[in-house]
Amino acid sequence: MADPLVSVERVTRRFGDFTAVDDVSLDVAPGEIVGLLGANGAGKTTVIRMLLGLVPPTSGMLRLFGERPSRQTRQRLGYVPQGLGLYDDLTVDENVAFVDHAFGSSTRTLPATLALVRGDLVGTVGLGRQRQLAFVTALSHSPELLVLDEPTSGVDPLARARLWDTIHDQAERDVGVLVTTHYMQEAQQCDRLVLMSHGRCVATGSERDIIGGTTAVAVQTARWQDAFVALDAGGLPVTLAGRHVRVADVPASQVRRMLDDAGVDAEVADVPATLEEAMTSLDRAMSGTTGR
Amino acid sequence: MTGPAWGLRGVTVRYGRSTALEDVTLLAPTGAVVALVGGDGAGKTTALRTLAGALRPESGSVAAPALPEIGFMPTTSGVWRELTVDENVSFVAAAYGVRGAELRSRRDALLTQAGLDRVGDRLAGHLSGGMRQKLAFCLAMLHRPRLLVLDEPSTGVDPVSRVDLWRMISQAAAQGAAVAMATTYLDEAERASSVLVLDAGRVLLSGSPADVVAHAPGAVFRTDRPTVRERAWRRGREYREWSPDPSSELGTRLAVDLEDAVISASLAKEAAGG
Question: pTM of the prediction?
Answer without folding.
Answer: 0.88
